[in-house]
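If your schedule permits, I should be very grateful for your opinion on a structural question. Thank you for your consideration; the sequence and its tokens are set out here:

===
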Amino acid sequence: MMIETARLILRAFQDADIPEFQRIYADPVVMEHMNGPKTPDVARISVERKAAKWQSQGYGFWCVEDKASGTAIGHCGLDFLDPLGEVECGYLLDRPFWGRGLATEMVRATLEWGFSQKNFETIIAIARPENIASMRVMENAGMTRRGEVIVWERTFFRYAINRDGANVGGMGLAAGCPA
């Protein structure tokens, strides 16, 4: 399964992606709001778990690839957030690709896919109060702040979008995406 946007390809993780994600997940700036940098083994396990979610729940995270270079630049996708009992959109983007609207582009594509292909009624995202950039991505993707939640013993702002507000930019799905 793959989603294609104007500048990105959201595709299944491959074993060949692991070294790139070991590098991305080791960057303390990129991982500042993701519980800090990860060791190579923890990064490998994280990628493997993201890939396995598709088997267990029928949705999960994609590896996000820059169309122009073919480089893996982050991840984005949906997961069931157990502590809240809701489907969450999560994302991470390598630092050289910040500030170009790419995070918003991948989140919009993911939200559209979740509504059109999985028929979710609501999709949420959470961010720590100090993570201004992530909140901006959520807002630019059409999500609205809907209070605070405690998850993993920490306070997060909860953002959400409902299916009736799911026109998140008319990005359209890739022609190869199953209906």
Summary: Residues 112 and 167 are 7 Å apart (CA to CA). Confidence is low (pLDDT under 50) at residues 167-179. Residues 3-120 form a domain with the Aminopeptidase fold (CATH 3.40.630.30). Strands lie at 3-4, 8-11, 61-66, 72-81, 86-93, 122-127, 144-151, 154-162.
